[in-house]
Amino acid sequence: MQERRVTLTDPAVVDALAHPVRLDVLGYLMSSGPATASQCARAVGDTPSNCSYHLRVLAALGLVEPDDSGDGRSRPWRATITGFTVESDGPGEVPGTAEMLAASVELDHHLVREYLRGRESVPDEWRRADMHGTYGLALSPAELIEVERQLDAVLRPYLRPTRTDAPDDAEYVHVSINAFPRAEFSGPR
């Protein structure tokens, strides 16, 4: 699939993605390709009927659509985008952005906790490769934007829906980055 990263400007779309299951289902379809409601349910730990409902909501907003790979008995869906951004500051901020970002952080924390609960059953090579890092950086706002741009440039070639040269042992890897000022840590220098 060719990369199609959109900037969300519709408050209804941002509000819909403030729901963690919708956000997870969309993420699953963006990274894994077409799937039925039952496949989505297994992937995100929900029920097929609930995922079917959330898929219809996402479809009404243009984020997913039916995929013609079905056999008549199954109804697969596919994402219409490979990623998204949302204006999260100033006068262009879309209402509901904070709630959507909170749902995304909540989902990230849930995924990390679940991974750590089952980490002992993860193959050794993946345990050696997994990472949790925390960095206390001294950055200006302009420098943070540049760091974010550089990280995006490093990660973007590996996006699952657009990568055509993945090795045979490649697995889906969840990468989450949070960067924000900690005013309570700033003090006299």
Describe the fold and architecture:
The protein contains seven helices and four strands, in the order βααααβββααα. It starts with a strand and ends in a 34-residue tail after the last helix. The protein is mainly alpha-helical and 189 residues long. It has helices at residues 11-16, 20-32, 37-44, 48-60, 97-117, 124-129, 141-155; strands spanning 5-8, 64-66, 77-79, 83-86. The longest helix is centred in the middle third of the chain and has 21 residues, at 97-117. The model has no long low-confidence stretch (mean pLDDT 89). Helix 2 crosses helix 4 (48-60) and helix 3 (37-44) packs across helix 4 (48-60). The strands form two sheets. Strands 1-4 form a two-stranded parallel sheet. The protein has a two-stranded antiparallel ribbon with strand order 2-3.
> Largest beta sheet: what is the strand line-up?
1-4
The beta-strand count equals 4
Percent strand:
5-15%
Radius of gyration: 18 Å
Q: What is the count of structural domains?
A: 1
CATH architecture: Orthogonal Bundle
CATH topology title: Arc Repressor Mutant, subunit A
How many helix segments?
7
What composes the largest sheet? 2 strands, parallel
Low-confidence stretches: none
Mean pLDDT: 89
Return the string of H and E elements.
Answer: EHHHHEEEHHH
Rough outline: globular
Which CATH first-tier class would you pick?
A: Mainly Alpha
Task: Write the CATH homologous superfamily.
Answer: Winged helix-like DNA-binding domain superfamily/Winged helix DNA-binding domain
Q: What percentage of residues falls in helices of 4 or more residues?
A: 40-55%
Structural class: mainly alpha
How far apart lie the N and C ends? 49 Å
